[in-house]
Specification:
Blueprint lengths: L2 E9 L4 E10 L4 E5 L6 H9 L6 E6 L2 E2 L5 H11 E4 L11 H12 L4 H14 L15 H13 L5 E5 L7 H16 L3 E5 L3 H4 L4 E6 L2 E7 L2
Parallel strand pairs: 3-8, 3-9, 6-7, 7-8
Antiparallel strand pairs: 1-2, 1-4, 4-5, 9-10
The structure holds adenosine-5'-triphosphate and magnesium ion.
Amino acid sequence: MLLRVHNLVKRYTEEAAVQSVSFDVNQGDYVAIIGPSGSGKTTLLSLLTGMLSPTEGDILYDNRRLSSLNQRELAEIRARDFGLVFQFSELVGNLSIRENILLPGLFTRKFSNAEYQRKCDYLLGHLKLESIQHMIPRELSGGQIQKTAIARALINEPSILLADEPSGDLDPENSYLVQLLLNEFNKKNLSIILVTHDMKLAFDAQTIYEMKSGKFDQVIKGK
Ligand SMILES: Nc1ncnc2c1ncn2[C@@H]1O[C@H](COP(=O)(O)OP(=O)(O)OP(=O)(O)O)[C@@H](O)[C@H]1O
Ligand SMILES: [Mg+2]
């Protein structure tokens, strides 16, 4: 078991944004979470990254309780094993697109520099970002920023990708490029937890959960 989520609750106010959610993710699983705006999807993903602390319940990653790790241990797992794509991804403003994508490698050094350059070229090519790779974020469109954030999340070949609406700013053609890329990495054993309103992406998953008022209301597909 890669990730085990048990009775997770998050209360910002009296009402719980996440209410007793439990599910498991094995290495190579592809899970999609759909549901209306405000149902708790982003809150759930933030809890899974360890950036938000749960009010109740547990998250076990690789048999380690996220809430019992210290900041350094958590940062290490996040950098090495997690690929993160947020709803409003922030790139480093004074670095080029290429440099932004390569940045996670500078911290973890999981691969050699030559391998990082090769992986970066591959991702830039696949996502059709080559021609803008030397531009900086403020010169880009929302969709180009989103694709850059996806490439940055994949450069380290994480164990698990946690992605919040990764195609939210993309046209159908670019969504399709992202869809192909996610499937390709999933075949190479990347686990994916994807929050999306895009049913084309959701239906690639083995399991689709629907979130409603903080609860996993229904398993639409899968186990
Ligand atoms: N930092 C916060 N403080 C207080 N309440 C919050 C906070 N973040 C989210 N909420 C509340 O928690 C609930 C769930 O929000 P969340 O962002 O998780 O929804 P979502 O499913 O991701 O919605 P969307 O599809 O619009 O992105 C909402 O009612 C929201 O107002
Ligand atoms: Mg959200």
